[in-house]
Amino acid sequence: MPVATPGILWKAPGMLLDPSGPLRVRWGYLPRIAPWLLRFISASRARRVEEISIALAALHDGSVEAFEPLLEMAGAGDMLRRTGWVCVYESEAGFQGAAPMLELQRRRGVRFEVLAPEELRQLEPALAPIFPRAVFYPQVAHVVDNFRLIQVLAEAFQQRGGRLLREEARGFDLGAAGPRAVLTDHGRRPCESVVVAAGAWSKPLSAQLGSRPPLDTERGYHLHLPAPGVLPRLPVYSSERAFVCTPLETGLRLAGTVELGGLNAPPDWRRAEVLARHARRWLPGLEAGGATRWMGFRPSMPDSLPVISASPRHANAFFAFGHGHCGLGLGAKTGRLVADLVAGRAPRLDMAPYRIDRF
Ligand SMILES: Cc1cc2nc3c(=O)[nH]c(=O)nc-3n(C[C@H](O)[C@H](O)[C@H](O)COP(=O)(O)OP(=O)(O)OC[C@H]3O[C@@H](n4cnc5c(N)ncnc54)[C@H](O)[C@@H]3O)c2cc1C
User: Fold this and answer.
1) How far does residue 192's CA lie from ligand 1's centre (Å)?
2) So what's the pLDDT on residue 238?
3) C or N: which end of the chain has fewer Cβ atoms within 10 Å?
4) 326: left (phi over 0), alpha (psi -120 to 50) or beta
């Protein structure tokens, strides 16, 4: 689903008034993010939402399957769980409000099943009986530990001859045919091709290659409960509260919310703590002892579509960032598409919606 949907302009002010609500703007950052917000609002027009959802669906198609060969190679096939996930609604009005979103999902071929309270109880007995409606999405998969996932993939990469350098890329040595080297805090790294994939920090590097995408960040928070006492069988999501409880091999992860505040403002941990309050109501007996908290920077484009693109200026420069809320899920598929672009193969997907110069 695109993040900007019709009506967001009218819903957002109410949400913004609540500092612990699902969406917050740091007022001091408002002037800087205003151009991004205008584009975000423009992307919420009904016709654009339709187009964006088509481009998102094309990208998500086969995104779970794209992980399989990687996980197999890394000997970590057990990390992927295909349990589906369930979206719960705390009120009938909340569910009715989601009707246009469900219709859009139906048009895009997303499979789902609307559940009555008793069906939800059978699917997920750990949940309190407080949800008049729920929607089950059988096609969704999750990983049991996203940090371990990255570690095993990095290890497999190195075992096959890849090299990981922990250095900060600061710029490029540009020749007539494009970047010849990456300039890092450790020196000059000669290169044949460059892929800028620095998440929310990709903007200055892109600018040095002549591209200025309207990238910003949607900051998000998580609270990790190592011994929750009660663990749902599958991820449980609330679109009303914009967060998800995911059972991991290391405990229960409560993650979500959106804060527009840029890359430099300190975290507002109230936003993480409030997740425990909601989760306690959902999951009776939940223990939050030993909880750890985290804030991350979603790299977000105003139209909810990532940049997966060749450089319009340099034949050997490429971009892969801006995946917003879906960068983990789309990681493997994006890797494949970028590999095609770098190798000069035509991807089996119309790449126009993800071009860096689409704005
Ligand atoms: C609370 C929260 C929950 C989320 N939940 C989900 C989820 O359930 N599913 C999902 O799919 N996505 C989820 N996301 C989104 C997901 O985390 C992002 O979309 C994803 O991490 C983006 O991947 P990336 O590799 O583009 O950027 P990042 O993961 O941010 O990685 C970019 C990397 O580039 C490095 N870097 C930056 N600048 C430089 C430089 N100059 N030189 C060298 N290295 C540099 C950074 O250190 C970083 O390691 C969530 C995000 C948050 C905050």
Assistant:
1) 25
2) 93
3) C
4) alpha
Q: Which two tokens stand for residue 125?
A: 């007995």
Residue nearest atom 26 of ligand 1, based on CA coordinates: 199
Distance 234 CA to ligand 1 centre (A): 23
From the CB of 298, is ligand 1 less than 6 Å away?
yes
User: What is the H or E stretch that residue 179 is in?
Assistant: strand 178-184
Q: Is the CB–ligand 1 distance for residue 169 below 6 Å?
A: yes
Spell out the alpha helix ranges (H) of 132-184.
Answer: 146-159
Range of the domain at 196: 170-215+304-354
Is 0.85 topped by the overall pTM? Answer: yes
| Tokens (6 digits) for 14 | 């109410």
Do 122 and 184 lie in a common domain?
A: no
Single out the residue of 70, 36, 40, 38 nearest to residue 52, CA to CA. 40
Helix (H, G, I), strand (E, B) or coil at 45: coil
| Banded pLDDT at 241 (limits 50, 70, 90) | confident
Residues 317 and 286 in one domain: no
User: Mean pLDDT for the chain?
Assistant: 95
CB-CB contact of 222 with 272 (8 Å): yes
17 to each of 23, 33, 124, how far by Cα in Å?
9, 18, 33
